[in-house]
Amino acid sequence: MLAFVLSNVIGLVRQILVSRAFGTSQSLDAFYAAATFPDLLFSLLAGGALASAFIPTLTGFLARDDLKDAWRLVSAVTNLVILALGLGSLLAAVFAPAIVRNVIFFFRPELDPALKTLTVDLLRIILIAPTIFGVSGLLMGILNTHQKFWLPALAPVFNWVGWILGIFFLVPTMGIYGLAWGYVLGAILHLCVQIPGLLKLDGHRYSFTFGLENPAVREVGRLMAPRLLGVAAVQLNFVINTMIATGQAEGSLSAINQARMVMTMPLFVIAQAIATAALPTFSAQVARGERVEMRSSLGATLRGVLLLSIPASLGLILLRQSITAMLFERGEFGPESTRMVAWGLLWFTAGLVGHAVVEILSRAFYALHDTKTPVSVGLTAMGLNAIFSFGFAGLFSSLGWMPHGGLALANSLATALEAVILVIYMRRRWDGINGRDILGGVGLFCLAALAMTVAIVVWMQLTNGQNVWLVGLGGVTIGGVTYGIAILALKVPETQALINMIKRRISA
């Protein structure tokens, strides 16, 4: 979690520098549009779908101390990832003009040809990165399976460092092309930082094999296939949102991407950090047949993410305007850009708790070697997201509101429905998930969050019209302190557990 915090801080610095250099300009819209397809390619062929299938399978070998077969599996999957992503990227580069014209800018056929040409050029540069990210993502899974979390969690930090180096040293002479090459440099650093950790693992041995006859490789493929559909649905929604946003006012795509980035900062620190650490533990408990322990671990993990995500969501909604201005309003990023990003942030943050719950529950299903359930639920949710995106964008336009906020609301509502359905399925699968404890905790967390909300609102009234740094930093500090005092006063069990852990660390 500490590494995720660091990653978010460096990522924030990266986004501040990007915003200062490009604001919400058309060239930045072109960059984000170009990055959509490589992200889609990586996610389909080597992203979350592979990790969710690979980690439980590899964990089974490690639980039996079968290092030889474990590294055969690692070698085969690595080679398949390189082959699939390499060929996919090459084909995408060849057909880049058609992709830009017929997919990315489908809703804007009248767009300036020069901007389309720029997007094609950026796309071809960025397509170098998916293969590198694919191998790096696989290394993350290998290290996490061995209960090694530090270097994989640091990898995103080095990715953002690559962007920052590109902004400082390439953008001044190359413009937006420098940002694209910084993207590629970030992928290289993302991979390189993990290699020392891989070399320290016992029995590591690479062999050139695709292992298509290997039952473990086929098991990874079997588990990955349904998950692939879910990832495809998610990425398709990103593509749809990109297509819709490119048809809206200038800067809408940049605004919605930046708003999503701010919302995902607490999501990464809270939910993804915990979920990343929880998946190998869930998988090991399942492999050992520890049903009661698995259910207890899942319930405790859900309480933990709710303890943190509820106040994060409310605080970000209340302070969205001042936080956006504090982070980005400089250089080419003016008050209008702040207004656009804060508007998207409002509706994205409404779904933060839902996203956090989905992160944990999906990992629990993957540990059970069940990718079909979360995928089928995700497909339904993403189908609704696509429908909501068109509907809410139109509704917001008719109300005179900025329509990109409707895209964010569609994502939040669909994710909330996905979380509810996953909870129902998991309760049936495990005859409960300690629901009373979770609901009891939610009640306490909401009471504490209510006290925090009152404190932030009072602070905002007292500092109305003051410097955004005073409003933003003061609001975050007062809100955090108030929430901490409230959960201590309410004797939330997690707080006592944290205090005891700190005492043990100090005494040790």
Structure report:
This protein has 508 residues and is mainly alpha-helical. It has a domain at 26-223. It is 84% helix and 0% strand. The chain is built from 22 helices and no strands. The radius of gyration is 23 Å and the shape is globular. It starts with a helix and ends with a helix. The model has no long low-confidence stretch (mean pLDDT 83).
What is the overall silhouette? Answer: globular
Which secondary-structure class do the elements indicate? mainly alpha
- Secondary structure tally, helices: 22
Binned strand content: under 5%
Helix content estimate: over 70%
C-alpha end-to-end distance: 21 Å
Biggest pleated-sheet summary: none
Quick check: average pLDDT?
Answer: 83
User: How many DSSP-defined strands?
Assistant: 0
User: SSE order in H/E notation?
Assistant: HHHHHHHHHHHHHHHHHHHHHH
Evaluate the radius of gyration.
23 Å
Q: Which residues form runs of ≥5 with pLDDT under 50? A: none
Chart the SSEs and their pairings.
Elements: H1 2-22, H2 26-46, H3 48-63, H4 67-94, H5 96-104, H6 113-126, H7 129-145, H8 150-169, H9 171-174, H10 176-192, H11 195-199, H12 215-246, H13 252-287, H14 291-318, H15 320-328, H16 335-349, H17 352-367, H18 372-398, H19 404-430, H20 435-462, H21 468-489, H22 493-507
